[in-house]
Amino acid sequence: MKAIINDHLRRTHNGYQALTQATQANFVIMGGVCAMSGGAVVTVPLGSPAAIHDGVTITFVSNSNQAHVINAGSAIIKGKPGDGAAYTTVTFPAFSGSSVILTAVSGFWLASSNNGTTVWA
After folding, report:
1. Burial of 98 (0-12, 13-18, 19+ CB in 10 A)
2. Taking a C-beta distance cutoff of 8 angstroms, is the pair 34, 20 a contact?
3. Which neighbouring-strand residues pair with 87?
4. In 10 A of CB 26, how many CB atoms?
5. What is the pLDDT of residues 6-49, one digit of tens each?
6. What is the tally of structural domains in the chain?
7. What is the 3-state secondary structure (H, E, C) of 40-78?
8. Do residues 59 and 70 make contact, with C-beta atoms less than 8 angstroms apart?
9. Which residues, 6+ apart, have CB-to-CB distance to 8 below 8 Å?
10. Domain of 113?
11. What CATH number does residue 32 fall under?
12. pLDDT tens profile 71-110
């Protein structure tokens, strides 16, 4: 029962996660904002969304002048304007304020908004 409740909270709670290089491995898939900060690059390990994650939207924001990275690994990020191809990496420019919004839909992460980031394989 506890696992079901935790999955429900992860899927529905609009939370806030602050990640630094020291805490980047603690990332969990949940709706809300994930702010990446600190004096070193943060690499977010973003797994493939399960069916329970459908509709979860995560806004990733750079809060420091570092070229942070979202590494989707086996997950597929779709939605780069103009081509609709599949990608696995989002790279942030080395300035504060850049962002990307990803939404889980049917096992994919869809990039619905992009402010200065590069979505690529």
Report:
1. buried
2. no
3. 77
4. 11
5. 444 444 445 777 777 777 777 777 788 999 999 999 999 898 88
6. 1
7. CCCEEECCCCCHHHCCCEEEEEECCCCCCEEECCCCCEE
8. no
9. none
10. 2-120
11. 2.60.120
12. 987 777 776 556 667 788 999 999 999 999 999 888 888 8
